[in-house]
């Protein structure tokens, strides 16, 4: 029942118990890096804390006191000492790093006595009172919920009265006076004196950190990042070192490589004579890390050595927090650095080339969904050159974004709900802005450096961000940006180039990026490992070609209905639907045939030797018809029939529940000639392309919505007859496959029978989920969010495949299908085919391929490789 570990007792493997920060502080201690001594109160203690009704129980307090005594002994300092007082920081540290989410208190232990001791032991009275006023504010804010502004306004007032700009310009008398004012504020707010007993301060602080685990910002962050709510946070109590002791002291943050592009070069910032969050909060403009070399060469080279040691030890890019106290370096934190997808790929490939990690490890390091960032459009160069530059800021997180500007997170969220693209513009962001940052296309801040809140969070989300754009004045109240003589108002368009840090007026057109270099190298490794093939869902030659660029190995689903909506075709489609005789219908279909044939020919062409699965018409015919009286009238005129007749026909076709209605193969039972026309187009196009030299063409004809083998037999017979007709007419042949979607639960559980007729199965998991769960896809949006917020579902089953239930139906179908036809080809073409956890499931099921939209192809490839490793 140990709840407290000294840093020298822990290790990086103990993350779930000590939290990320604690485990890494322990690890750094044990590999001989300079870490101020301290201890970690475990995540288990946090969970216990909630079980105990949010109190710290006596034996825990004893354990804390014991470890505190050890620190006192090591440093030869004591709480409240008038000669040489011990001060500590109280730092939260969850298992998964949650930037800015939890609160840290510095300089704890200061009181009226200790401040004198600190002045004495350091010979620096100004510094001592500066630390005290910082402590009172932080403690009051974090642990006692007294608004920060109450203190900040006093500080501002003091600076104004003194006619100075920076807090470093205040002298010790000023700070002493401030401390007295701060204590008064505390008394006004809490109706008791500022706590003077360090042990009481410590207990309150620990409680506050435990309680901050459940503050709304932390809850939102966990929800956004799928972090469980029951992990708890650890608390680190660490002896203080001081970056605010004068010109030989400072504090900073550095990445061992560039988190935007991965370049192998130290990247970071520091501030001389500053403490804690000063760098991150953007109080003063920080210096670039390389400048430390000129100011303190010795310390700089020590720091560089430490970063190298850490990177080698962790075998990954590190994000390091450090403090310098009178030219002595201390490390305060290390963790794997958050990075853009672009940087993640470059770092992973470089680490393999540097022999630090294996290809497998590199593959496992990239979160598949992150690749999305790399595939997305960038500004068209010419449009960019013509655009008006408004200002330049820091290139905080790469990407291209255009949108209307909004100044508050709520407004961005509302704009998104209206379907608008927007840019969140803030003086600087804070954790309260998270939801707005998620909803925005990009983020622009006027203050803050490369490691400011906006920059760190945006890079983590892969969202375009320009930070610290000091040329602009952001007025959040009047909702305007002022630049030089110009004003940009809320709702006007701007564009951001996050890689250059440039802000443009107006909207700029975007184009596809080229994928090359390390991305291609990485993806070849991915392809070496995966077994699953990855196909794409594409209905046009353009989409097909894009998917091939992204590595698609075929088309798993070519929907034919979208082709029918084409302006030139829809009249023929409608005539086909409303015709009352077979002759009329065939006439309309004959008009459509050459267009369909051209569609397929061009798609085969775009795909080259790769297989193409074409699904025959699926949606209810009603969807193709006009609905308003005006539209019906003009259609009736163009078709030369009576308005009333047409209206009757349209009403006849209306269904109460179209998803379960006259669609898919059921259409072909009533009107076999529709599938016959499509089959003819597929086969004729294949014969044409075969003639042009593509001998290996192998069209795969897919029949939707089969539930019973008898249905399949009927439709297949019609199709095969038509194929034979074409072969006879052309006196030529091609190989082809006829298969079915498995999307009706009855088909899944009678798959052994279905497989007697079907040469392949493709799981249509959208419909299979709809019918398996009985959730209407068109209506479920209304209530599934309640399922998610009430914890019944973690994710909508339409987004992430329900492996247990719907997955079970797939498993049954795979087993039964193979029983009848051992070599049956198996794939999936629902939305889930591009969702990483579902791809992994398909790998385990032994499917041959997954099929997904073109932009998800690289994601599916990576997920498929990770499934093997
Ligand atoms: P976060 O999780 O928000 O990064 P930290 O616990 O890392 O919070 O604390 C923020 C900053 O406070 C650190 O980067 C460091 O500069 C400062 N800090 C924390 N503990 C100490 C300490 N013991 N001595 C000096 N500075 C500290
Ligand atoms: Mg913080
Ligand atoms: Mg930190």
From TrEMBL:
InterPro entries: ATP_grasp_subdomain_1, PEP-util_enz_mobile_dom, PEP_util_AS, PEP_util_C, Phosphohistidine_dom_sf, PPDK_AMP/ATP-bd, Pyruvate_phosphate_dikinase, Pyrv/PenolPyrv_kinase-like_dom. Residues 516-867 form the PEP-utilising enzyme C-terminal domain. PROSITE patterns: PEP_ENZYMES_PHOS_SITE (PS00370). Its EC number is 2.7.9.1. It catalyses: pyruvate + phosphate + ATP = phosphoenolpyruvate + AMP + diphosphate + H(+). The active site is at residues 453, 829. Keywords: ATP-binding, Kinase, Magnesium, Metal-binding, Nucleotide-binding, Pyruvate, Transferase. GO terms for molecular function: ATP binding; kinase activity; metal ion binding; pyruvate, phosphate dikinase activity. Substrate binds at residues 559, 615, 743, 764-767. It comes from the Bacteria. Its cofactor is Mg(2+). This is Pyruvate, phosphate dikinase. It comes from Acetoanaerobium sticklandii (strain ATCC 12662 / DSM 519 / JCM 1433 / CCUG 9281 / NCIMB 10654 / HF).
